């Protein structure tokens, strides 16, 4: 075919300019934002601590220094010791694992419910959409913390699992709304029509063609939701409804509460700071991701 | 002539909206033979695309195919189950859309989009799929296909994207290709290239094509036969040469006059006054009569039927009613 020659010359130049794939563009933009990098470093540090931290802490979380209860920080123990003589730093490291476990499990649960409901409501529309969205509205009005307290007292198991289940199962409405609205727009697009015209089924279109297009907003939302679940667990535990056997940051704060005004301010303060910094990290990283994934701000 | 590949009989597609019933396609009859190209021409809003989507059964709410038959290869497509219909789409009938850039999913590379049809309809190994995709991209004139198939749609130009979409449509060797204004969003030089490509593919693959467009000039490049649609109805159907030499329906005549001619001095472009009627409240009688230069009394009262006036030339117009003298009426 003769006509193949022409477009080759024509397009080669355009081609050179845009060889960067989408991922590298996102990475570049992420790196360019100082705050996002800062947030990313914190997130990474927390994750690494959660996974490997317990293997490198100077003391085990249950090692007691019998004569050194309430050792102040920046002395023998870098962040001090609690009223039982346990090393606060080692406890914090272990707490990272528990708190992150709560945050990530709850977010996964939120994603499972929110995505399913959002996708079905947005794609199929009509009566299905109406029913699902009214249900979402109802769930949205439920006061999470109160229900958490009720659930924890009801089940009489002060387990993390109950906290994860309840907070995850109540946290999805916003995600569902976002996913639904994205599906509402995307299902009208020509590429969906094109996919249908080659014989793709509804579910294939939902999962393979539309869902990947919504990934950026979903990832951002979920990233920023992780600290929320850590908060919920910490607040609940601080109020005394937590799992006393899981050494989360919330438990450490609750145990340190009694010493706040007196001789042991560091016991509650450092776990609190850990929650604060972690949440800050996830939020900054999420913000950065949002900007990096946004096609409209590509020029920079 | 033996059995046509596609035979649309009395197709009715309506859109049921709160304001009323939009009769987008009404009583349309079309035939496409094997290896034949049928051009479907008309202004925007005439029901061309709706006809195409009805064939594929891709009409969505609030649209509905309310009547008719679409016989394809010995089966009535409108009676197939959804699952069977999905097997027809992409494998036996495929479609190329107006805007190639929008037809591609922005988050997947071009190669994986083209392989979608192969994946859905043929049981082929991954490596084999890659080879096939590269092959077909080469056939539609994409240079360096094994490298360019890894590119994302935004890295393609409009013309290349349309080539890729044609590649996707042809990847399973369909018997019928529906091209819905495939060149409308492209600039003129690229238009010519795409038309050349479709000509070549038709020669090589022997695919029947339903070519939809509003530009008679473009359509005539490729078509064997032409059907002219107006306000949801086919008003004239003839061989390409017949239609150009002796257009019969006043609407077709007007459309042809609108084509600019280089060999004539023209002060002004011809236009057809007015617009396509509101398809909820269609004019009584002939739907074209409010804009027609030859409108007679009967035109607003009685709807003209599509009749074969000459061999292989049908038209729906009262000017050719057997009791009136066609020679007197035609200019």
Question: Keywords for this structure?
Answer:
heterodimer; A: 300 residues; mainly alpha; B: 331 residues; alpha/beta; 4-stranded antiparallel β-sheet; 23% strand; disordered C terminus
How would you describe the overall organization of this protein?
The complex is a heterodimer of chains A (300) and B (331). With 300 residues, chain A is mainly α. Chain A has helices at 5-17, 22-32, 34-56, 88-124, 126-141, 144-155, 160-170, 173-186, 190-197, 202-238, 249-256, 266-293. In chain A, α2 (22-32) crosses α12 (266-293) and α11 runs antiparallel to α12 (266-293). Mean pLDDT of chain A is 84; it is low at 1-19. Chain B has 331 residues and is α/β, with parallel strands linked by helices. Chain B is 32% helix and 23% strand. In chain B, the strands form 2 sheets. In chain B, strands 6-7-8-3-9-10-12-11 form an 8-stranded mixed sheet, with helices on both faces. In chain B, a hairpin with a 2-residue loop joins β9 and β10. In chain B, α4 runs parallel beside α7. At the A-B interface, α1, α9 and α10 of A face α2, α4, α7 and α8 of B.
Quaternary status: heterodimer
Low-confidence residue ranges of chain A = 1-19
Secondary structural class of chain B: alpha/beta
Number of helices of chain A: 12
List the helices and strands and how they pair.
The complex is a heterodimer of chains A (300) and B (331).
Chain A lengths: L4 H13 L4 H11 L1 H23 L31 H37 L1 H16 L2 H12 L4 H11 L2 H14 L3 H8 L4 H37 L10 H8 L9 H28 L7
Helix pairs in contact in A: 2-12, 3-4, 3-12, 4-5, 4-7, 4-8, 4-10, 4-12, 5-8, 6-7, 8-10, 9-10, 10-11, 10-12, 11-12
Chain B lengths: L5 E12 L2 E13 L4 E5 L6 H9 L6 E10 L2 E2 L5 H7 L4 E4 L3 H4 L6 H12 L4 H14 L5 H4 L9 H13 L5 E5 L7 H18 L2 E6 L2 H5 L4 E6 L2 E7 H6 L4 H9 L48 E4 L2 E3 L10 H4 L2
Parallel strand pairs in B: 3-8, 3-9, 6-7, 7-8
Antiparallel strand pairs in B: 1-2, 1-4, 4-5, 9-10, 10-12, 11-12
């Amino acid at each position: 075919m003769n006509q193949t020659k022409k477009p080759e010359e024509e397009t080669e130049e355009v081609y050179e300019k845009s060889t960067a794939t989408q991922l590298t563009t996102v990475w570049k933009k992420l790196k360019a934002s100082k705050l996002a990098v800062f947030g990313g470093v914190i997130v990474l540090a927390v994750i690494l601590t959660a996974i490997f931290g317990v293997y490198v802490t100077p003391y085990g979380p249950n090692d007691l220094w019998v004569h050194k209860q309430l050792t102040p920080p920046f002395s023998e123990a870098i962040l001090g010791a609690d009223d039982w003589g346990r090393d606060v730093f080692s406890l914090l490291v272990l707490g990272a694992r528990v708190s992150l476990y709560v945050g990530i499990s709850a977010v996964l649960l939120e994603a499972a419910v929110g995505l399913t409901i959002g996708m079905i409501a947005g794609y199929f529309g009509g009566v299905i959409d109406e029913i699902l969205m009214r249900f979402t509205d109802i769930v949205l009005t439920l006061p999470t913390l109160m229900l958490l307290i009720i659930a924890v007292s009801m089940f009489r198991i002060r387990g993390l699992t109950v906290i994860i289940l309840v907070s995850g199962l109540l946290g999805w409405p916003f995600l569902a709304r976002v996913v639904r609205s994205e599906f509402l727009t995307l299902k009208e697009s020509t590429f969906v029509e094109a996919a249908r015209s080659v014989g793709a089924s509804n579910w294939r279109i939902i999962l393979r063609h539309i869902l990947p297009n919504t990934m950026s907003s979903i990832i951002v939302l979920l990233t920023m939701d992780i600290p929320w679940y850590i908060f919920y667990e910490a607040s609940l535990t601080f109020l005394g409804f937590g799992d006393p056997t899981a050494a989360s940051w919330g438990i450490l704060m609750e145990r340190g509460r009694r010493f706040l005004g007196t001789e042991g301010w560091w016991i509650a303060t450092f776990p609190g700071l850990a929650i604060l910094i972690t949440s800050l990290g996830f939020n900054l990283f999420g913000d950065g991701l949002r900007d990096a994934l946004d096609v409209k701000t590509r020029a920079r | 002539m033996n059995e046509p590949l596609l035979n649309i009989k009395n197709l009715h597609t309506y859109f049921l909206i709160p304001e009323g019933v939009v009769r987008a396609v009404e009583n349309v009859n079309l035939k496409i033979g094997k290896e034949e190209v049928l051009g479907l021409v008309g202004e925007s809003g005439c029901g061309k695309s709706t006809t195409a989507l009805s064939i594929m059964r891709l009409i969505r709410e609030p649209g509905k195919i309310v009547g008719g038959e679409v016989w394809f290869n010995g089966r009535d497509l409108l009676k197939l189950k959804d699952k069977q219909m999905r097997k027809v789409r992409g494998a036996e009938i495929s479609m190329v859309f107006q805007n190639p850039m929008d037809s591609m999913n922005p988050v997947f590379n071009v190669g994986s989009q083209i392989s979608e049809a192969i994946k859905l309809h043929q049981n082929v190994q991954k490596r084999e799929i890659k080879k096939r995709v590269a092959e077909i991209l080469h056939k539609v004139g994409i240079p360096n296909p094994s490298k360019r198939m890894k590119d994302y749609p935004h890295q393609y130009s409009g013309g290349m994207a349309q080539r890729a979409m044609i590649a996707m449509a042809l990847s399973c060797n369909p018997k019928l290709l529906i091209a819905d204004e495939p060149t409308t969003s492209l600039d003129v030089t690229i238009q010519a290239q795409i038309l050349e490509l479709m000509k070549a593919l038709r020669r090589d693959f022997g695919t029947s094509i339903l070519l939809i467009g509003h530009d008679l000039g473009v359509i005539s490049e490729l078509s064997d036969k032409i059907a002219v649609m107006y306000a949801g109805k086919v008003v004239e159907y003839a061989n390409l040469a017949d239609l150009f030499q002796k257009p019969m329906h006043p609407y077709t005549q007007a459309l042809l006059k609108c084509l600019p001619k280089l060999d004539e001095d023209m002060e002004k472009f011809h236009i057809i006054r007015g617009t396509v009627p509101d398809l909820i409240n269609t004019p009584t009688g002939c739907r074209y009569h409010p804009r027609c230069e030859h409108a007679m009394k009967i035109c607003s009262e009685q709807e003209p039927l599509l009749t074969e006036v000459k061999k292989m030339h049908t038209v729906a117009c009262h000017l050719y009613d057997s009791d009136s003298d066609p020679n007197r009426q035609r200019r």
